[in-house]
Amino acid sequence: PFLSYLRADGIVLPPSFPSLPSAVTDLDDDSGISLASSDSDSDPEEVDSFLEWQDVHSKIKSTIIELGGSVIPKLNWSAPKDATWISATNSMECRMPDDVYLLLKSSDFVTHDLEQAFDGCEDDESRTTEDISYHLVLRKTIPSFITSLEFRCFVRRRKLLCICQRDLNHYAFLPSLLPTLQPLIETFFEEKLKLTFPDESFVFDVYIPQPKEKGRVWLIDINPWAPRTDPLLYSWLEILTMPEPKMAPADLLDGVLRLSIQGHDSGLSIHDHDIELSASEDENDKSSGAEEDDVEFGLEFRLVNRDDPEAYSF
């Protein structure tokens, strides 16, 4: 019944929860949003349909309280981030069940999950959207979320391929944090996701609020390896054709690890294992005329440069 409610046209909120943001209550009759009530003017079938998923509502309400009074909703694959315009806070933060319903019903992303979930997949006539076991996920709202410290990571064939910042604004302090951020993300991937996630190729988002103090990595979301997932500072063609990161050969492990931040057309990138062998001073004297060749290893970590077209503030 709850899925039928989400799929139904129009936005009708349950009768028992009339508290709505002012942005909603001020809408006119043409807005498509209405509030069901138990009076004689309401459609009895409409009111009865809400009673059929009263247990879902009760679970949502108790979960919001359990998670501190504020949550962010998500269906199987998508969060209703395209519907924040209808929220009084202009965000996905929900403090009451009707906040959740309003975002879900107003989101094209959620509608896509409900009606066109198999777009971009191989044809399989034996499976339909009716076969999907849908889940409503309520994630605890992180207070004082710092968007500049959220990063998107691309995994191809169980190898962490590249990373970029999630918020497409330029932040001058980020390049200095790259030597700290990249090892934290790589370690998190190796320990938590590499061998545990069922798909070998996927995209995940992480949040590292205090990289130097605590170094804790929060997993925010996992996205499909598909064109509908925003590649942000990359293009899907670039990601699909990008060489896999190489590990340093055994005979180079005693060399000096040199971190280099290099400019790209679409931002900055860091090659964590850009390794250059160093010799003793005596050896340098003997081979002073020899040319040193740099061999690059490791994944790419791309940031928004100050003058990048990708930057929101450009």
Would you write up a description of this structure?
By secondary structure, the chain is of the alpha+beta class. The chain is 26% helix and 18% strand. The protein contains nine helices and 13 strands. It has a five-stranded mixed β-sheet with strand order 8-7-5-6-13, covered by helices on one side. A two-stranded parallel ribbon has the order 1-2. A two-stranded antiparallel sheet has the order 3-4. It is globular, with a radius of gyration of 25 Å.
Outline of the structure:
With 314 residues, the protein is α+β, with helices and mostly antiparallel strands. It has nine helices and 13 strands.
Computed structural class: alpha+beta
Strand content: 15-25%
Overall spatial form: globular
In terms of quaternary structure, the protein is single chain
* Low-confidence parts: 17-28, 249-296
Radius of gyration: 25 Å
From the N-terminal CA to the C-terminal CA, the straight-line distance is: 46 Å
What is the ordering of alpha helices and beta strands? HEHEHHEHHEEEHEEHEEEEHE
The main sheet orders its strands as 8-7-5-6-13
Main β-sheet: number of strands, strand sense, barrel status?
Answer: 5 strands, mixed
Helix coverage percent: 25-40%
Enumerate how many helices there are, as a single number.
9
Number of strands: 13
Overall mean pLDDT stands at 76
